[in-house]
Amino acid sequence: MGKNNVTPTTSKQADGNLCRHLQTAAKKTPKKLAVSVQKKAFSQLTYQEMTFSELHHSSDDIAHALTEYGLKPGDKAVLMVKPSIAFFCLTFALFKAGIIPILVDPGMGVKNLKQCFEESQPDAFIGIPKAHLARLLFSWGKQSLKYIINVDGPACFGGKQLNTILKKYPRTKRFKIEQLKIDQLAAILFTSGSTGIPKGVEYTHHMFEAQIKVLQKDYRIKSGEADLATFPLFSLFGPALGMASIVPDMDASQPIKANPDYIFAAIERYQCTNLFANPALLSLLGQAGKQKQLSLPSLKRVISAGAPATISSIKLFSEMLTQDAQVINSYGATESLPISKIGSKQLLKTTSITDQGGGICVGEAVKNVDIKIIAITDQVITQWDDSLALAPFEIGEIVVKAAQVSQAYYRREQATEQAKIQDGPIKRHRMGDLGYLDEHGKLWMCGRKAHQVLSTHLKEPKAYYSIPCERIINTHKSVKRSALVNVLINEKVTPAICIEPQSNISQTSLFSQLTELAEQHTQTQGISLFFIHKKFPMDIRHNAKIFREKLAQWAQQHV
């Protein structure tokens, strides 16, 4: 798909630090808003604001104090602070000082968090009191931690308060930003673990720079805009782009529980031009907007990522937008984001193909991204060869190469070996997703590799893919959502579909209709086993990723 024009990362290239963007914004637009954090106080919404100049100087103060306290470039620091002014100041301070922030998703669970800290071996733990209490209770990072720093509260669980360190080591001159080789480790971002064990993704300044360029060129985000930031990591791109980050009062790990009124109020107050919303939040806001008959004329674009948003939720939300604004569906992963995108107007034209089992269109590759499809295999592929690439419309595993693609998992050599393919000076990333490229180079998603069902129940083995099968079944009016799983019957792998119904309905009648529907499509022919499950287990963050592994175990018990 296009020529291989991806810039390789080598230590011979120029030094850099992504904080140069904040430094530039502080010089060019010192008094412009950089961050605003919304809080509900009693019956009113309040906003704590910070300009680019204030953010730059405050992060300089913290960077200086941390280095004087003993932290040095290359040290690793867990950062467990809620989205706040402190979160922004601390993150940029760590980057400036060359200290590697370890960012984890609190929604991944205590067991996974402990494993993340054991793997990353942090030198410092910077967090709010609640995080420090959990650190003690569950012995997080006990073997490696040298510095314990408390934010927004007393040091009642050991360590020092950030304010105490700042007072002890006041900055008297400009802080010199640490210049790093662009392929040096800049941050460790752990995957959520919603489709497997969480892994620490190695981020370099080169990756961050590439992501910033994509947001500028492909998404056309400009300095001076305002972003309603509902995801902490994306919110950090705001100041780097010269864009104000407006943080609503919500639990970023559970967006489905957000209060739409708070978000609408923040958009209205700052006339936000950009909104990042995952599928669950997009649906929630669309429903609330319809009830209130709201319009959001200031929004130029809405970026949705994390999981495919439903067509119905996109249509509903789009009713609040102007004719020129679109919901942009972004495809990628923590290891490689963004990879491709498609606007809602174009996406809506593909619904008939999706409903016929053609997969979900996730658009064309963003600039300088090379997408290929390879045969489905669990085997390690050490070296890339163009002969590995499949022809258009052949379903296989999606493989990507780009400057924003991570080259390794932190201290996970086996996982890196399984997910990466050496291609010249850099590595391609195996997405773990299945799909195909059409004749125009558009990418179509067919589901996770782990969710395909390789059936042996028929005369000839057959592969079933989650998205094509489920989208066909979902066209039935009585089906809210469905999930493809496999069960063993007489030692033969048999495809089955779990159904979450819209309402109470006769199982006999529904199953008969679904069997007939399945036989009408090549993708679902041979599926005749269905189960009713009244409430699917879903991931917390996106409320769109079905835990098919749990459903498969449940279905096996009901065979």
Structural class: alpha/beta
Give the helix proportion (percent range): 25-40%
User: Architecture of the domain at 11-181, according to CATH?
Assistant: 3-Layer(aba) Sandwich
Distance between the termini: 44 Å
Low-confidence runs:
1-12
Explain how this protein is built.
With 559 residues, the protein is of the alpha/beta class. Among the domains are: 11-181, Rossmann fold (3-Layer(aba) Sandwich); 454-557, ANL, C-terminal domain (GMP Synthetase, Chain A, domain 3, 2-Layer Sandwich), CATH 3.30.300.30. Helices cover 30% and strands 27% of the residues. Strands 2, 3, 12, 13, 14, 15, 16, 17, 18, 19, 20, 21, 22 and 23 form a 14-stranded mixed sheet that branches. Strands 8-7-6-4-5-10-11 form a seven-stranded mixed sheet.
Q: Can you give keywords for this protein?
A:
single chain; 559 residues; alpha/beta; Rossmann fold; GMP Synthetase, Chain A, domain 3; 14-stranded mixed sheet; seven-stranded mixed sheet; disordered N terminus
What does the secondary structure layout of this molecule look like, with pairings?
Blueprint (H helix, E strand, L loop, with lengths): L14 E2 L3 H9 L4 E9 L2 E8 H18 L6 E5 L4 H13 L2 E4 L6 H11 L3 E4 L1 H9 L9 E4 L9 E2 H7 L11 E2 L3 E6 L9 E5 H13 L8 E4 L2 H9 L3 E4 L12 H11 L3 E3 L2 H14 L8 E4 L6 H8 L7 E8 L2 E8 H5 L2 H5 L4 E6 L4 E5 L21 E6 L11 H7 E4 L2 E12 L5 E6 L4 E3 L6 E3 L1 H8 L5 E11 L2 E10 L5 H13 L10 E3 L15 H10 L2
Parallel strand pairs: 2-13, 4-5, 4-6, 5-10, 6-7, 7-8, 12-13, 12-14, 14-15, 15-16, 27-28
Antiparallel strand pairs: 1-9, 2-3, 10-11, 16-17, 17-18, 18-23, 19-20, 20-22, 21-22, 22-23, 24-25, 26-27
Helix pairs in contact: 1-2, 2-3, 2-6, 10-11
Protein name: Fatty acid CoA ligase family protein
InterPro entries: AMP-binding_CS, AMP-dep_synth/lig_dom, ANL_N_sf, ATP-dep_AMP-bd_enzyme, OlefBLtnSynShew
Keywords: Ligase, Membrane, Transmembrane, Transmembrane helix
